[in-house]
Write a structure and sequence with these properties.
alpha/beta, six-stranded parallel β-sheet, 9 helices, about 20% strand, binds 3-amino-D-alanine, methionine biosynthesis
């Protein structure tokens, strides 16, 4: 069987990587449609040496489509995902809009592929900073249990989009030339105040919630619980953290403190073994030779890199690790295409009867 595929948001930082990842994937593609906003319609992109003209997305764009890979932002997915499902297409959505919906599985194949079995037409791709963390935590949980996670993130500018990446580059150039740094995008589009990221750190990713956490921190807490423990409000694990934007173009870094179950006898060696044997993980951990993951080495790669595994010196059964991955690949485009590959392999590219009604408001 060959599939008619549509990429929604085809011209963005993630969208262009969705095309690349689809080209490199095992999915048999019959036809590829590239969809974007009216502003981007008319652009020409290539897929397998074939030039494709980007079209403006409309509900009718999804007629005859089997699989939609979406990365056009929450409002676009809110509007078009139900339209696509109504027309029999399965949607793998990279936006945050559907992630917490009880009718939508939130999936990282290495962690909870089984959740694909009960999809209703929309499958959500987790937030980039959540994805790399659960890829590293899951093999540890399976071997030693997991009761607590405290994460600090060091997130690349490209996580906030192509324009944020370009703003960082422009600020760096300006600063090096002794000129004023201009900030119009970071820490978050639409916020009242903007600050330079170059030569700086910004402890704000997305908007602030009333409890003082940012929406990015909220996502990491609830998405981790839903993916690893099946419930966005699970009490089986305590998760908290701080999300920080750093002047790196691509590649998120994360320091992760975690507590294992006391009666499982976790050790650094045992954790390193579990990580080195885990799907999608590459262990880079040898202080003697200064071996540890770095964003510049992870960029362009699909894997999640883990190092600096060491015990907490004052809490039993507790450890620290350093996790790095390309936020545009495993954090977005590759995980999305990987989900699509698994749907094809499991013959799950089909919309259950009446499923669309679960997403049509009112
Ligand atoms: C960010 N994780 O880094 C968010 C969305 N990609 O901005």
């Amino acid at each position: 069987r060959k599939y008619n595929i549509a990429i929604l948001g085809a011209t963005g930082a993630v969208g262009t990587r969705l095309i690349e990842q689809l080209e490199a994937s095992t999915i048999p593609v019959n036809q590829l449609k590239l969809l974007a906003s009216a502003k981007s319609a008319g652009k020409k992109l290539t897929f397998k040496d074939q030039e494709i003209i980007v079209e403006e997305a409309t509900p009718e764009s999804f007629d005859g489509i089997d699989l939609v890979l979406a990365s056009g932002g929450g409002s676009v997915s809110h509007k078009f995902a139900p339209e696509a499902v109504k027309r029999g297409a399965v949607v793998v959505d990279n936006s945050s809009y559907w992630r917490m919906n009880d009718n939508v599985p939130l999936v990282v194949p290495e962690v909870n592929e089984a959740d694909l079995q009960t999809h209703n037409g929309i499958i959500a791709n987790p937030n980039c900073s959540t994805t790399q963390m659960v890829v590293a935590l899951e093999p540890i949980r399976r071997a030693y249990g997991l009761s607590r996670v405290i994460v600090s993130t060091y997130q690349a500018a490209s996580g906030a989009g192509q324009s944020a990446w370009e703003e960082l580059v422009a600020q760096t150039t300006a600063h090096n030339a002794g000129e004023e740094m201009v900030a119009n995008i970071l820490p978050v589009k639409g916020a009242e105040k903007h600050y330079p990221l170059a030569y700086n750190l910004l402890p704000q990713i997305d908007v602030f919630e009333d409890d003082g956490y940012t929406h990015e921190e909220w996502k990491m807490i609830h998405e981790t619980k839903k993916i690893m423990f099946g419930n966005k409000n699970s009490k089986s694990v305590k998760v908290t953290g701080t999300a920080v934007r750093v002047p790196v173009p691509v590649g998120h870094g994360e320091t992760v403190y975690f507590e294992t179950d006391p009666n499982t006898g976790a050790t650094v060696k045992g954790i390193q073994k579990a990580l080195s044997q885990a799907e999608g993980v590459i262990l880079e951990d040898d202080p003697k030779t200064q071996l540890y993951p770095q964003p510049i080495n992870a960029e362009g790669k699909r894997e999640t890199f883990v190092g600096r595994v060491r015990p907490d010196l004052e809490n039993d059964d507790s450890f620290h690790m350093w996790v790095v991955s390309d936020n545009l690949l495993k954090g977005a485009a590759w995980n999305t295409v990987q989900i699509a590959e698994r749907l094809v392999a499991l013959d799950l590219v089909r919309v259950p009867e009446g499923a669309a009604n679960k997403f049509i408001a009112g």
